Amino acid sequence: MRTVTPAPSASTVPRPTPTTPAAALAMLMEGNERWVEGGLQHPDRDPSRRQFVAQKQEPFGAILSCIDSRVPPELIFDTGLGDLYVMRTGGEAIGPVVTGSVEYGPMTSGTPLVMVLGHQRCGAVEAAYKSIRDGEPLPGNLEAIVDALRPAYEQAVREGGPDPVETMARAQATLTAETLRSNEDLAPLVQEGALAVVGAYYLLDTGKVEVLSGSPS
After folding, report:
1. Which of 1, 69, 108, 128 could form a disulfide with 146 if both were Cys (CB 3.0 to 4.6 A apart)?
2. 51 with 18: CB under 8 angstroms?
3. What contacts 196, CB < 8 A, 6 or more positions away?
4. Helix (H, G, I), strand (E, B) or coil at 114
5. Can you tell me the mean pLDDT for 79-90?
């Protein structure tokens, strides 16, 4: 049987892990720039990396994004195994379990960055918008998503504009980031500069991520 020797990989030597919010955000945005331009490095995605993180993980970021199949955080930020904690819910809706999952990295391993990532043409946001506007509840537990997105709907109505669904999607990312940033467990970390909670928005057309709020200095 022929023996296949794995190709050398950049992850054979571990990359430095960002330890500050600004450095963590910079690494994410550099990866997103590679995604936009098509110059992907595919870091941290080989057997040596798997072995390196098998006993311990130190992700430099936690991403709360939508369940949308077109918005996989590990791909759009060109990251790999052990780099990110990732939580995905419809329209970035949060509740106690999701909030606890977001808190896990910053509170247990010093993860310096949380990003709430909304996106263009979000189906969950559109469904919630129409449900609230028309007074027609969605079936099953989808109504829980509608309830969670109601503050973003109300903000979108106040702001107006030509595309209220897009306004609501951006508002949802910003409001959710504000909620997480100010909660009793994460707020002290934010105040001391150990953590940033960033609201961001992904453009399906270009692949680009825009930072909306909470960018660390």
Report:
1. 128
2. no
3. 21, 22, 24, 25, 112, 113, 114, 190, 214, 215, 216
4. strand
5. 97
Phi-psi region of 7 (alpha: psi -120 to 50; beta: other; left: phi over 0): beta
Give ∠ CA 152-145-122 in degrees, rounded to 5. Answer: 65
> What residue has token string 């970035």?
92
Biggest CA–CA distance in the chain, Å, is 68
Other beta carbons within 10 angstroms of residue 113's beta carbon come to 28
Q: Which DSSP letter does residue 92 get?
A: G
For residues 52 and 50, what is the distance between their CA atoms, to the nearest angstrom? 5
Among residues of the chain, what percentage have pLDDT more than 90?
90
Output the pLDDT for position 194: 97
Closest residue by Cα to residue 77 from 140, 136, 24, 127: 24
Confidence band, pLDDT 50/70/90 cuts, at residue 217:
confident
